[in-house]
Design a protein that fits this description.
Length: about 550
């Protein structure tokens, strides 16, 4: 076996987004494209010789091929060992768990998360550091800088490694240990939650459905929910991961998880429904004919956290991404703990968790997590809910309604306009920035704009500054409209419009969110000139 040094030319477009580099599969299939990016990672992270790396992905199309290339490149770049998930599988939270548990130097996760998979769909790759979390912006910027002047990469000339059975093989001087992708993660879950109480709940006729959407969480949900917790066979739907997710869009929301939604809103609906995304880090929580918004879910988990054994001693603090509703802030205030507001993307939570400042964190985009790993964690959120349901013995809906009665309700919705021409999307954002001075102080019906800005974040731990994280229109009554361009899309630009209104009056809590937010939606469309600039008269997805 010999190490080859292969000459290459830089690609100009290898800038990692919100969560790693995501492109269509044919882009990754260009000669040297994946190799360039992997070598740029290795050149930037400065792993000591003999270091251990974790490697796995969500099983989508190109996963198996990419893993073989990365293994051979890791061997040629001086790594001593790679822990690889069997079959190339590791969910994002499981990869984070394994990196931390075995104290490795870091890991590479192959996923485009909630984006569809298949030969013409999306693929992605990201590096996670030794804390188990996505590389910080300093690291991703270094990787991008390197990708722009790379001239060669190193790869071992070798046969492919057998990945379908646990065991250890050598690849040159590097050990490849194929591990069970589920066991370490399932053990961690068992250490956090009251499995006895959940098992009793599931044995008492309480019915659940978990839709794995043919994505990575299938084997995890099957092992934990059906095997360890005794949920009846068939409680986990679409449990076999497929390279194209069965042609579906593995994003757990009311639009894309429609099969589950039909079950949960149908006759004889089960008591609890949940789904997770392509790489297993997102979650959607449903009760019988009842949808829990991700922002509310974070707030409810925070308010009830001490019911779960792993959180019995309380929370150090809570963090949420800026567009996420302020429902969690109200809980933090009541618990007298700090609440941090970060830019979108999990990489910003890592520093706060490492410094012991927060225990729970969440995003409006169906992401919730805690300091047990350094990624958001779909199945963890499901188990947390089940633990609370087992302890409180109340339906999901009444737990949420009681929460609103106590804290008030933050009506919330997000409108996504996908695949816009980039010029139109950038023009709209620029138009909003240009309007800041004229908008501040303006009255729209019962809403008055207090301030407008482009969100900027100073990390309280390392002082690093992240600018231009979303345009905010902040109203005098605490309502908010936020405009942001997605950093994970691969097709033109995706504009996200986030809407939030706070309602203390319990007699208004029964309203539908779209109804309650009607006026704010009209204001958002008006001030952004959305239809005029994009030609769209309705969003692609409403969540
Ligand atoms: C989206 C979400 C963001 C999330 C990111 C990664 O980013 O809005 O909250 O952290 O996806 O999620 P953007 O830039 O498209 O808005 V996932 O499940 O890819 O790991
Ligand atoms: Co994901």
């Amino acid at each position: 076996m010999k190490i080859l040094t292969v000459d290459t030319c830089p690609f100009p477009d290898q800038k990692p987004g919100t969560s790693g580099l995501r492109k269509k599969v044919p882009v990754f299939q260009q000669p040297h494209y994946l190799e360039n990016f992997v070598q740029s990672i290795f050149d930037s992270i400065q792993a000591p010789p003999g270091a251990t790396l974790v490697l796995g992905g969500d099983g989508r199309y190109y996963n198996r091929h990419a893993i073989q290339i990365i293994l051979k490149m890791a061997a040629a770049n001086g790594f001593g060992k790679v822990l690889a998930g069997r079959g190339g599988i590791l969910s994002t939270p499981a990869a984070s768990c394994v990196i931390r548990k075995y104290q490795t130097f870091g890991g590479i996760i192959l996923s485009a998360s909630h984006n569809p998979g298949g030969p013409t769909e999306d693929f992605g790759i990201k590096f996670n550091s030794s804390n188990g979390g996505p590389a910080t912006e300093t690291v991703t910027e270094a990787i991008f800088a390197r990708s722009k002047n790379i001239s060669a990469y190193r790869i071992l000339e070798a046969d492919d490694v057998a990945l379908d059975q646990a065991g250890t093989t050598m690849l040159g001087n590097m050990q490849v240990e194929v591990i069970d992708p589920v066991a370490d993660y399932a053990d961690l879950m068992e250490s956090l939650f009251d499995f006895g109480a959940i098992r009793a709940l599931l044995g008492s006729g309480f019915r659940i459905r978990f839709d794995a959407m043919h994505a990575v969480n299938g084997p995890y949900a099957w092992e934990i929910l059906e095997q360890r917790l005794g949920a009846p066979a068939g409680s986990v739907l679409n449990a076999v991961p497929l390279e194209d997710f069965g042609g579906g869009h593995p994003d757990p929301n009311l639009t894309y998880a429609h099969d589950l939604v039909e079950i949960m809103y149908g006759a004889d609906a089960p008591d609890f429904g949940a789904a997770s995304d392509g790489d297993g880090d997102r979650n959607m929580i449903l009760g019988k004919r009842f949808f829990v918004t991700p922002s509310d879910s974070l707030a409810v988990l925070a308010a009830n956290a001490t019911l779960a054994p792993g959180y019995r001693s309380g929370l150090a603090g809570i963090a949420r991404s800026m567009p996420t509703s302020a429902a969690a802030d109200r809980v933090a205030r009541a618990l007298n703990i700090p609440c941090y507001e970060t830019p979108t993307g999990w990489k910003f939570f890592g520093n706060l968790m490492d410094a012991g400042k927060v225990t729970l964190c969440g995003e409006e985009s169906f992401g919730t997590g805690s300091s047990h790993v350094r990624e958001k964690d779909g199945l963890w959120a499901v188990l947390f809910w089940l633990n609370i349901l087992a302890a409180r013995k109340q339906p999901v809906e009444s737990i949420v309604r009681e929460h609103w009665a106590k804290f008030g309700r933050n009506f919330y919705s997000r409108y996504d306009y996908e695949a816009l021409p980039s010029d139109a999307a950038n023009g709209l954002m620029q138009h909003l920035r240009d309007s800041f001075t004229s908008l501040a102080g303006r009255q729209f019906g019962r809403y008055a704009i207090q301030t407008c800005d482009d969100f900027s974040y100073t990390d309280p731990v390392d002082g690093s500054i992240s600018k231009n994280q979303g345009v905010r229109l902040l109203f005098s009554d605490g309502s908010r409209i936020i405009f942001r361009l997605s950093g994970t899309g691969t097709d033109g630009a995706t504009l996200r419009v986030y809407l939030e209104a706070y309602e203390a009056d319990a007699s208004m809590h029964h309203l539908d969110a779209q109804q309650a937010l009607q006026e704010l939606i009209a204001i958002a469309l008006q001030v952004s000139e959305l239809e005029l600039r994009t030609g769209r008269n309705k969003p692609t997805v409403i969540t």
